[in-house]
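Issue: ligand-bound run for magnesium ion - logging full I/O for the record.

Environment: standard queue, default settings, no custom constraints.

Inputs:
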Amino acid sequence: MDTLELDPRLRHASTFLGRSPKMLIDGRMVGALSSKTFEVVNPATGAVIANVPEGDKADVDLAVAAARRTFDSGVWAKVSPSEKSRILWRVADLVERDLEELAELESIDNGKPYAVARVADLPLVVDMFRYMGGWATKLGGRTIPWSLPGQFLSYTMKEPVGVVGQIIPWNFPLLMAAWKIAPALAAGCTVVLKAAEQTPMTALRLAEIIQEAEVPAGVVNILTGFGETAGAALAAHPDVDKIAFTGSTEVGKLIVQAAAGNLKKVSLELGGKSPAIILPDADVDAAIAGAANAIFFNHGQCCCAGSRLFAHKKVYDKIVAGVADIAAKIKVGPGLDPATEMGPLVSDEQFARVTRYIKSGREQGAKVAVGGERVGNLGYFVAPTVFENTKPDMQIITEEIFGPVVCAMPFEDDDLDRIGREANDTSYGLAASVWTTNGGTAHKLAQRIRSGTVWINCHNVFDASLPFGGYKQSGWGREMGEEVFHNYTETKAITAAL
Ligand code: NAI
Ligand code: MG
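Outputs:
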């Protein structure tokens, strides 16, 4: 504890930070087999807030063996669907009880404002466990009508896919854990989850909550460690039946290769370059506020961030000036400061990546309307940035920046096919938003956009019941909603001759 520099504003989280957090393997809270740990840093200051276990291949082997044994012996399968629901609801209740503590941990670990974690991330986590808990009692099959000669009775069953490996990123640390663990448990799978090395704290606290909720030993295993070691071992493990990954498109491709060894099932939720498209008849004030929120929420560290801002030339100047004005007024500071509206980027690596993109935008001829600079000289703060004069082949347009940087571009067309084609001119297809007061236009354009989500007059709006995922290189499969169970179930067809 004496080596850690804890922020005096922490009211609930210092106890947990001080008690050397452990991983969860086979129902026990443990350190890494190697006894190694790594430092977790507060991105607002660079100070070390905890040392956590550095799990690697050996720990992954142990965790997968526990999940395999637990799955094969039917420990979780024998728990009735309604009891599974009750257990998932218990996890939700405990997260709700510890909301302030978890929001503080998220803020100090990831950098996001405490208030945002408290009103956005955490309620969504609670809701995810409750919503998915509800599905445990509803995952049935169908009876199938027969056409060929003979008399048969056929029906399908939904069965758990087995041992699931889950690898999550750092932008919504606890929410990503909930998106992954809750549906897998509802489906009857056992889980080995690896948290992101930048933000392991809330996953480790969730591990304690899962113990307290009396999830049977071995059903959920939670590891901390690095991607190249622990993550790669999980993705390649022959006893893992399915891998669910959220992160970069680059690592998504490595996961696919690693999965080939035993042809494990793969679902991927990857990068994006989502357009916010503002039509000339949009409510301009709402569109300005919406386009700013689309990129600046969570410091632009959202896979669905509205990072390409398309505005019709009739409203373009007003929209860009409005978004730049909001950007200039955003209060950037440490997540635990109540006045803060935007915190630091998550890590020195992301800080370097985002500032590199800003430099490349300038070098390739884009114009900075506002921002474009570091804020302060401590921590990883980047000013909300608006680029103008952007061209389709610039790196800042073709690649995901994953920071508070939006690239504005006017369009002249009124033809929806052409607007759709411009919006679709990207290797990604995760999300888009359309801003217009004409309902018909909105839905026609929504149909032309090749992405898993289209928002109309809103952006970054989520519900546990809404499927979310990508077309093209934004991924495979869907998270959330009923759709997520394609990821975690197998369909069995049973036919009886009558
Ligand atoms: P990343 O894809 O390297 O990390 C995501 C997760 O994958 C982490 O848990 C990491 O430990 C793990 N991982 C890394 N290498 C692995 C490997 N070889 N095998 C198995 N697991 C591995 O993402 P990173 O480096 O943190 O961020 C880089 C970029 O990725 C960001 O700038 C952003 O563009 C994108 N990204 C997208 C996210 C999304 O929500 N779709 C979330 C985080 C990052
Ligand atoms: Mg990486």
